[in-house]
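Aim 2, interim progress: modelling of the zinc ion-bound target.
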Amino acid sequence: MAKVLGLRCKECGEVYPKNPVHVCELCFGPLEIIYNYDEIASRLTKSKILDGPLSMWRYADLLPIDGDPTVGRQVGYTPLVKADNLAKVLGVRELYVKNDSVNHPTLSFKDRVVAVALSKAREFGFDTVGCASTGNLANSVAAHAAEGKFKAYIFIPHDLEQGKVLGTLVYGATVLAVKGNYDEVNRLCSEVAGKYGWGLANVNLRPFYGDGSKTVAYEIAEQLGWRAPQNIVAPSAGGSLLTKIYKGLQEFHKLGLIPDLPTKMYCAQATGCCPITTMVKERSEIMKPVKPNTIAKSIAIGNPADGYYAADTCRKSGGWAEDVTDDEVIEGIRLLAETEGIFTETAGGVTVSTARKLINQGILARDESIVLCITGNGLKTQEAILGKIGHTIPISPNLASLAEALAGLGGVPETGRK
Ligand SMILES: *Cc1c(COP(=O)(O)O)cnc(C)c1O
Ligand SMILES: [Zn+2]
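Predicted structure of the complex, ligand included:
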């Protein structure tokens, strides 16, 4: 028996064979993978996971590819950092950072979804892949396409950060900079997939792509000693990551790998693009698309494909949602860097500042365990903080010049080796 039985429409339940399709022909609802959990349960144990590779592929039994992965074999198993310094500043008892800013190879959580999507693309027989991206997905698809010897066509909005653009071009991908925002890029790509017969990671491969995000949850649970945290804060763009983190925890619970599921999910967005947090805060069933205007470009999706499900997951799990201004995004980046020595991108600044806001509102409980999902690396979004942090102090290469500079700083405090 196969572990993947097919695809199912999340809205009307219609079942489809395992193909590169992502919307229901009957109701246009999104499709998701149908797993054979009885079959998976018969062979998946803690010790099998523990004996597996130190990568996201230790959970391969719960990922939607038939054979072994053919690209991205080293992706995942990123650090879960106990963030005691940040906990102190935020006034909470037990805080962790799931640090995907050091994910191999392109320094964001997107390597997880792409490792699955392109391994599946190979199984489907595609020789050309691509994506619609706000930046990190572009980096990851281009890198894994190079590794897997696929041709790659990457579609991005024309105004992305330079680090994201260079970090795509370097792999030799063809990069199309679309004069429009992400939602327009995405609309174009749904036409592209059909016309050219390419495997687009977050379009016609989307059901497979999405499940790569479940591995964030599996790792958190394993790294906490096979238990789920009481709270997880995650940034949302299309809403897939947050939804799939919870799905991953539900699967671990169903399979008996964690004893209970107390986790409340919290969505973090930038106020300049917050269709999902607005839905939660207004207790609305309808998501209103917005026109993005924020420095947090990696999560600036005005019409998120899984927005409804992300909002629903926050509510059903007993969590909530909040959004923060661009100034707060920068404060969040600085706070994480200065307390924990972790340099995250704008999306991470959103997550840290949203967590602080939820704690100050009394919504996130100070005495409960909290995991912050840090999803991307700060070296890729340098524009966001340029001129807004400290500056270097120029000196000549001699002690007199150093002494002058230190005097200018108000002198050197009495310190030394103790
Ligand atoms: C893509 C992305 C997200 C959100 O992903 P969705 O699954 O689309 O909600 C969060 N953080 C970073 C850094 C990303 O690149
Ligand atoms: Zn349907």
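The CA atoms of residues 199 and 262 lie 37 Å apart. Residues 110-124 form the longest helix (15 residues).
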